[in-house]
Design goal:
The protein is of the alpha/beta class and 326 residues long. It has 3 domains: 53 residues, no CATH class; 56 residues, no CATH class; 163 residues, Vaccinia Virus protein VP39 (Rossmann fold). It is 34% helix and 25% strand. It is built from 10 helices and 11 strands. An 11-stranded mixed sheet has the order 1-2-3-4-7-6-5-8-9-11-10. α1 packs across α2 and α3 runs antiparallel to α4. The longest helix has 16 residues. It is globular, with a radius of gyration of 20 Å. It starts with 17 loop residues before the first strand and ends in a 5-residue tail after the last strand. The structure holds S-adenosylmethionine.
């Protein structure tokens, strides 16, 4: 964990001061250590470079951990299928198995090819456009950029090599297992110095009020349950004049997909109106742009829960600014 972050930190549970203990470090990073809250006594370890600031009251939906466990079990319990899938060339492999093969091998090229089969052409174009736009937002002069809900790092892995600035890039997620797989990738590609990884709940960030100048999230908010709390938390944590940029894929209210999203409790960031409302209500100045509109279809093998029927999506980028005088 980059040492630049130390003065910004606070206890994510009670916002008390943290006392640090460093077991292993290099000139710029804490490698192993522990932070202890002087008020509520909660402990937060730094394990192999990853700061773990998990607020433990709410159970974490560890889908990534389940996937890691499943990958290990699959290899042990189905050695022949594992061999066939990973070590042989299967000509007419189904798109969802192609994707699973990429996950098993942690091979981004396979995953990219599978992605092109799973999603519609418009989806791939629209999504790529919004990702690129997020990366191109001018974040010069921001000492720290925090990525919220980074998952497998589809976003930062694509762009991190092109980053020229001296800012510290912090990729965060509440799943420690996904961050550990991101760390494996960063080490394999000689990029572990370029990204600091931190585990925390986006609804309880371990940062002081008005301490972080820029945040980015690649389709993170629609994946956070009660995501409006994460928007409020981002507002608290950002410096005045700080920005948050993120992307969305919107449907419209009359669709079956929207009805399904409501059933699943995923409707808040699935339409433009309520998304803008959430950010405005938190106090942000909002600038929301459609970059692309195109046809989407359900993914095979239930890879994504939505859409359930073909639809037209609006691919948007949202730039939210915390007013200079809040
Ligand atoms: C599908 S990923 C988003 C894509 C990702 N940003 C990328 O570029 O690859 C959604 C992520 O949100 C994370 N997540 C869900 N709820 C969260 C929360 N409350 N706090 C932090 N991360 C959360 C999940 O663990 C998952 O990794």
């Amino acid at each position: 964990m980059h040492k630049v972050l130390i003065p910004l930190l606070t206890c994510p549970v009670c916002h008390g001061e943290l006392r640090k203990q460093i077991m292993k470090e290099d000139p710029t990073h804490i490698i192993d250590g522990e932070f202890t809250c002087t008020k509520c006594k909660q402990k937060y370890p730094v394990i192999d470079q990853i700061g773990v600031f998990i607020e433990t009251k709410e159970p974490i939906d560890e889908s990534w951990k389940k996937l890691e466990d499943f990958k290990k079990r699959f290899q042990k319990e189905h050695p022949i299928q594992y061999f066939l899938l990973t070590k042989t060339f299967l000509g007419n492999i189904k798109a969802e198995h192609h994707f699973f093969k990429g996950l098993l091998l942690e091979d981004d090229r396979i995953l990219e090819r599978a992605t092109r089969r799973i999603y519609s052409k418009d989806y791939v174009i629209g999504y790529e456009k919004t990702k690129k736009a997020l990366w191109e937002v001018d974040t010069d002069n921001f000492p720290v950029i925090l990525e919220i809900a980074c998952g497998r790092g589809t976003f930062f892995k694509q762009f991190i090599r092109s980053r020229q600035g001296s800012e510290v890039y912090v990729a965060t997620d509440f799943s420690l297992s996904v961050l550990q797989s991101d760390l494996r990738w960063l080490r394999k590609n000689g990029l572990s110095e370029q990204v600091t990884l931190m585990a925390f709940d986006a609804k309880a960030m371990p940062f002081r009020d008005s301490s972080v100048s820029a945040m980015v999230s690649n389709v993170g908010f629609p994946n956070i349950r009660n995501g409006d709390d994460a928007v409020n938390e981002a507002f608290r944590t950002l410096t005045p004049d700080g920005i948050l940029v993120t992307n969305f894929m919107f449907t419209s209210e009359q669709t079956r997909n929207y009805a399904k999203a409501k059933e699943l409790g995923l409707d808040q960031f699935y339409i433009r109106k309520s998304t803008e409302e959430v950010f405005r209500k938190a106090g942000f100045e909002v600038d929301l742009h459609e970059l692309y509109r195109g046809e989407v279809r359900p993914t095979p093998g239930g890879i994504d829960g939505l859409p359930i029927v073909p639809d037209t999506y609006s691919f948007c980028v949202l730039k939210a600014r915390k007013p200079a005088i809040a």
